[in-house]
């Protein structure tokens, strides 16, 4: 319930914006310092990004580095935004907005602006900056953050989960549903109320040989007050980097999961060898597929376990993720891509046994809408020996070369939820297992690996009694033996597995392809796998 102190403070803040036309409920109860107003429109932001791309890159004005270095992981963890100052906290049906503080690992100051025109039929026309003040944050008296000069800026922001009307159910300041923090990274919770993998505004030269990856920054955000009771917020952003500039519009809806519609314009300052659009970044250490010996007590550790693709020809593809022996880049060309995503399919707690709840991590699906040219989904897999490192990137890379002066305008939709939004009607892959090849009780032959690939779904449930699906297999090299299919002996209808041995010499990767069919009709999605041969057990 609003207090008298909050009411009096709110009146002060509302008066400061009365000339802008910002409704009183748009601001927080706290006394926020505001800058002067300026005109704003998305078209003007796009034009600004276009003009910036014609000039050399100038890094953001840095706040004193010697102070930020003192705000290490421990010190940063003790700094919390005071929700008394949260914009949009007092309006009916609003999502309160809170901010992250700068620190050793978040060096680039980000400017935050509030737009007018809440509930108006016309777009916002004025913006006023929220000026940084350390009074907005609860922190120890000896925190090095107190040494930062006024107006230093913020590191990022998040929208809190619950609205004012929900405060009797939970403390809204403890729950957020979307967060933007660091470079162009952002993430959202799904319908299982967990953060996991991240998305990015852009990916520049990820794992490109001879080049250092570039991390452009969102340097300004503009927040459009939501209409009362709306489940949607709109945020605009300016992107800046040595190779690229951009303007973004995020229309974010909090429903059962989180859906974001992104409209962005990009302008290249210089050539880019690998331009990643709509990139997603995740972590995959190990799963049931390949098990190290004693590397960790848990059965599986990953935020995502596979890449799913819905191709332009209608094929649904499932590619289990790898923790490869060295950096690998895989490409899946398409001309009319329907969607792709990094998914967490395994939802069984017993498969993780971890209190961080990997089984509840959201999946992220990308749906192209407008402006997508021919290109390919690229999957980058990096070697990791711990769960603290993101080592997976999936993104769309246009076929045409990304050269200085090129411009891109595209729209797409992101779905943060527990499952893909457009699942195949066919049976889908639910597990990939590898082991030593050969037969039990017999000497195990060298250079032979056994694969067990499990599928489950309605088409397999409808098989006539006694019918057995055919495993359709192919490989870039090597030979198959002991190929057969059988029901998984767990009593679950429609749960089958294909088993085969692969014999292959040498250490080069092998590309495998498999699906199930009956009487010429596909029963399952297509399983793709990149196998890295080894002579001994893998070491993690």
From TrEMBL:
Naturally occurring in which organism (per UniProt): Herbaspirillum robiniae
Subcellular location: Periplasm
Associated pathway: Glycan metabolism; osmoregulated periplasmic glucan (OPG) biosynthesis
Protein name per Swiss-Prot or TrEMBL: Glucan biosynthesis protein D
Sequence similarity: Belongs to the OpgD/OpgG family.
Signal peptide positions on this chain: 1-28
Any coiled-coil regions, as ranges: none
InterPro entries: Gal_mutarotase_sf_dom (IPR011013), GH-type_carb-bd (IPR014718), Glucan_biosyn_MdoG/MdoD (IPR014438), Glucan_biosyn_MdoG_C (IPR007444), Ig-like_fold (IPR013783), Ig_E-set (IPR014756), TAT_signal (IPR006311)
Top-rank taxon, per record: Bacteria
Domain Glucan biosynthesis periplasmic MdoG C-terminal per the UniProt entry, residue ranges: 40-531
First-listed, main subcellular location of the protein, grouped into a coarse class: periplasm
């Amino acid at each position: 319930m609003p207090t008298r102190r909050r009411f009096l403070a709110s009146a002060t803040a509302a008066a400061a914006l009365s000339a802008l036309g910002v409704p009183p409920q748009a601001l927080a109860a706290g006394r926020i310092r505001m800058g002067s107003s300026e005109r704003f429109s998305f078209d003007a932001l796009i034009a600004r990004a276009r003009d910036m791309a014609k000039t050399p890159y100038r890094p953001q004005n840095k706040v004193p580095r010697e102070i930020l270095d003192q705000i290490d992981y421990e010190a940063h963890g003790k700094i919390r935004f005071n929700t008394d100052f949260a914009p949009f906290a007092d309006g009916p049906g609003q999502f309160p907005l809170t901010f992250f503080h700068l620190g050793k690992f978040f060096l680039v100051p980000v400017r935050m602006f509030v737009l007018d025109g809440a509930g108006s039929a016309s777009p916002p026309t004025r913006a006023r900056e929220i000026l940084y003040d350390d009074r907005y944050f609860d922190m120890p008296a000896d925190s090095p953050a107190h040494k930062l000069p006024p107006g230093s800026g913020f590191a990022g922001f998040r929208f809190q989960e619950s609205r004012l009307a929900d405060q009797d159910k939970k403390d809204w300041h403890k729950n957020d549903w979307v967060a933007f923090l660091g470079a162009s990274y952002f993430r959202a919770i799904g319908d299982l109320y967990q953060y996991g993998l991240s998305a990015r505004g852009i990916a520049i030269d990820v794992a490109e040989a001879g080049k250092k990856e570039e991390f452009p920054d969102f340097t300004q955000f503009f927040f459009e007050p939501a209409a009362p009771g709306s489940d949607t917020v709109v945020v605009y952003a300016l992107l800046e980097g040595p190779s690229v500039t951009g303007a973004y519009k995020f229309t974010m809806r909090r429903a059962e999961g989180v859906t974001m519609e992104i409209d962005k314009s990009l302008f290249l300052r210089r050539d880019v060898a690998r331009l990643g659009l709509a990139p997603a970044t995740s972590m995959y250490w190990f799963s049931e597929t390949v098990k190290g010996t004693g590397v960790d007590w848990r059965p599986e550790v990953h935020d995502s376990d596979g890449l799913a693709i819905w191709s332009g020809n209608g094929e649904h593809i499932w590619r289990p993720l790898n923790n490869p022996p060295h950096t690998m880049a895989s490409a899946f060309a398409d001309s009319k891509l329907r969607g792709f995503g990094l998914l967490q399919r395994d939802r069984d707690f017993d498969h993780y046994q971890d209190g961080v709840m990997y089984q509840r991590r959201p999946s992220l699906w990308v749906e192209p809408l407008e402006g997508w040219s021919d290109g390919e989904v690229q999957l980058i897999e990096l070697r990791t020996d711990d769960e603290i490192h993101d080592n997976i990137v999936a993104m769309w890379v246009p076929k045409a070369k990304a050269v200085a002066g090129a411009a891109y305008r595209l729209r797409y939709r992101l779905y943060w939820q527990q499952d893909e939004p457009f699942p195949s009607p066919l049976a889908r892959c639910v597990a990939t297992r590898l082991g030593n090849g050969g037969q039990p009780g017999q000497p195990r032959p060298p250079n032979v690996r056994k694969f067990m690939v499990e599928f489950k779904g309605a088409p397999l449930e409808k098989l006539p009694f006694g019918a057995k699906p055919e495993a359709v297999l192919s490989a870039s090299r090597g030979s198959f033996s002991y190929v057969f299919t059988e029901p998984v002996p767990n009593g679950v209808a429609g749960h089958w597995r294909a088993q085969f041995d692969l014999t292959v010499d040498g250490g080069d990767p092998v590309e495998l392809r498999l699906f199930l069919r009956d009487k010429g009709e596909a029963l399952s999605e297509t399983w793709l796998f990149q196998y890295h041969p080894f002579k001994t057990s893998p070491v993690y």
